[in-house]
Amino acid sequence: MALTGIQIYKHLPKTNCKECGFPTCLAFAMKLAQKQIELDKCPYVSAEAKALLAEESAPPIRKVVIGVGEKQLEIGEETVLFRHEKTFVHPPGITLQVEDTLGADELAGKLKQAQAAGFERVGQQLRLGLVMVKNTSKDKTKFLQAIDVAQQNTDLPLILASSDAAVMEVALEKTAANKPLIYAAAPDNYEAMAALAKKHACPLTVCHAGGLDKLAELAEKVSGLGVNDLVLDPGIHSLGTTLAQLTQARRAALKKSAKGLGFPVMVFAGPPGIDPQQETLRAGVYIMKYAAVIVLRSVENWQLLPLFTLKQNIYTDPQQPLQVEEDVYKIGEPDENSPILITTNFSLTYFIVAGEIENSKIPAWLLIADVEGMSVLTAWAADKFNADKIARVVNTCGIKEQVKNRNLVLPGAVAVLSGEVAELLPDWKVMVGPREASNLPKFMREQSV
Q1: Closest by alpha carbon to 287, among 134, 162, 179, 126?
Q2: Record: fold of 64-314
Q3: Which residue intervals of 182-296 are DSSP H helices?
Q4: What predicted TM-score, i.e. pTM, was given to this entire model?
Q5: Residue 1: per-residue pLDDT
Q6: Which CATH number fits the domain 327-446, given the four candidates 3.90.226.10, 3.40.50.2020, 3.40.50.11600, 3.40.50.1110?
Q7: Which has the closest alpha carbon to 72: 113, 129, 134?
């Protein structure tokens, strides 16, 4: 049975040092009991208490790592049902499934497409997470050949899918050093698959389509065999059934400490032959509702862009928006007479404004004010993007030493600040730009800035 906050408190140092971020040790203990914080946030907890409270401090959903190196995928370790409660931690791995029945050239083409798939958005590189190689042929030789083609054409972590433990053992001899995800331990082969996962120290999928109770029971059996890095697969169902099971599994793990469900969950976005649009729509639902690995049968750019964007938005900490550093940024190759604009450090704002300046084909200097990652209007309403802040950035960022030009363009949404800014910067001509960034190219071409 999970310890209560009071029981945990008895093992804490009771110094009320506040270094954990909470006013008292009791408040920290209560959060620890709710699994909303980790024990290592307390700098003075004793080794004995750490050993005793290790289970209490572990996240309710186990962290699992697939692959090695820079592109390894970390999933799980989630602590909340809703991102506004705290944040979602590890974005799901969007996965391409390929089958060993494909010809070598077609297979290589799909894998090269997976390797190249991706976009840059607000300064982040958005990529596929995994490739699943499925032993559809049931032939060991074809499966091994497909794995060879995969390793030659992509460095993404692999999921190896075969129900035959003997075939899987040979495949793992070639790939275990790269820590692929083994798919899958089912009721008829879980002992053999668990032995392979333990021998090669690879994560293992546990699959049971008979409902969450049976899935949890099977996961506990596998865990009892010494394999704890597990991923759960509830089987392919309708969208409604899968959504319900994902939600129920997360709630049971977080609210009821259901050990058999305390692992990340993988899903297939659709059955064979599904329309790609339907597959993409399903994948979007699963991103929002708790899937840690989402398997697609095709990864065209038109599918991936909305999925990557949704994933990025859902897995951004709502309390810490994406932001860029306060600084002077060169757009193009500006000189001492180039235009000077200013905006806030919310990443989306920066990249939209910078993109529109680039579209104008006019090199410019873009000043960024640190407003804790807020957009222009939000920062203005919070009194964080005000005349004093703008004047301070202009005076301290070093722009005055780089230009002769003394024309400063404010965002049109804060035109009300222009008078105050002009008073604080008497040597500058303060101009008001357009309200919408999309109008910047026309504004810069028509105005002498």
Answers
A1: 126
A2: TIM Barrel (3.20.20)
A3: 190-200, 212-224, 239-255, 276-288
A4: 0.81
A5: 45
A6: 3.40.50.11600
A7: 129
**Amino acid of residue 155:** D
Q: Using CA atoms of 191, 196, 201, 207 in order, give the dihedral in degrees to the nearest 10.
A: -50
Domain boundaries, the chain: 5-57, 64-314, 327-446
User: pLDDT digits over 135-178, tens only?
Assistant: 999 999 999 999 999 999 999 999 999 999 999 999 999 999 99
Rounded distance between C-alpha atoms, residue 194 and residue 190, angstroms: 6
Residues 6 or more apart in contact with residue 122 via CB below 8 angstroms: 312, 322, 347, 348, 350, 351
Give pLDDT tens digits for 367-402. 999 999 999 999 999 999 999 999 999 999 999 999
**Residues present in the chain in total:** 449
Is the Cβ–Cβ distance between 143 and 180 less than 8 Å? no
Return the higher-pLDDT residue of 29 and 131. 131
CATH code, 5-57: 1.10.15.40
pLDDT per residue over 227-237, tens digit each? Answer: 999 999 999 77
